[in-house]
Amino acid sequence: MAVHFSVNDRPVSTDVDPNTMLVWVLREHLQLTGTKFSCGTGVCGACTVHLDGQAVHSCVLPVSAVVDKSVTTIEGLSEDNSHPLQQAWIDEQVPQCGYCQSGQIMQAATLLESNESPTRQEIVSHMDGNLCRCGTYGRIICAIERAAAEGKS
């Protein structure tokens, strides 16, 4: 069955089983490998993408749920990695292994979209559920604070 939706502002159509999880369609069929697979149960956040502007875990979302909707992956956040969060991640030297970082950035982007000046506690609360096995939480928080501050200038 052909499934039609938008990815990173481009219409796509893929012929997959409608129960195939979105993460696999993105990675295997569309070659958008920035979205990572980790837990497969929607608890770690490594697979976070935006669905119509909301952060979702693509490892538990069947592709049938995105028909005629808009998906944004880390590749669609900016074409040249110039998004303020991506720059803040570099400036704050957030990644250690880097595996969870695209999901972290995508989760953070929804926060800054709805709250341009989040408090530290709001950042921590919003990012709860995105796991970093390397423990770079302090740098993640600093990067989000930096992106928020630079977004105001």
Q: TL;DR of this structure?
A:
The protein has 153 residues and is α+β, with helices and mostly antiparallel strands. The protein has two domains: 2-76, Beta-grasp domain (Ubiquitin-like (UB roll), Roll); 84-152, Orthogonal Bundle (DNA polymerase, domain 1).
Per-chain topology:
Elements (H helix, E strand, L loop, with lengths): L1 E6 L2 E6 L6 H8 L18 E4 L2 E4 L12 E3 L1 H4 L6 H8 L9 H14 L5 H8 L9 H15 L2
Parallel strand pairs: 1-5
Antiparallel strand pairs: 1-2, 3-4, 3-5
Helix pairs in contact: 3-6
Describe this structure in words.
The protein has six helices and five strands. A hairpin with a 2-residue loop joins strand 3 (48-51) and strand 4 (54-57). Strands 2-1-5-3-4 form a five-stranded mixed β-sheet, sandwiched between helices. It has 153 residues and is of the alpha+beta class. The longest helix is centred in the last third of the chain and has 15 residues, at 137-151. It folds into two domains: 2-76, Ubiquitin-like (UB roll) (Roll), CATH 3.10.20.30; 84-152, [2Fe-2S]-binding domain (DNA polymerase, domain 1), CATH 1.10.150.120. The mean pLDDT is 96. The chain has helices at 22-29, 74-77, 84-91, 101-114, 120-127, 137-151, and strands spanning 2-7, 10-15, 48-51, 54-57, 70-72. The chain is globular, with a radius of gyration of 15 Å. It is 37% helix and 15% strand.
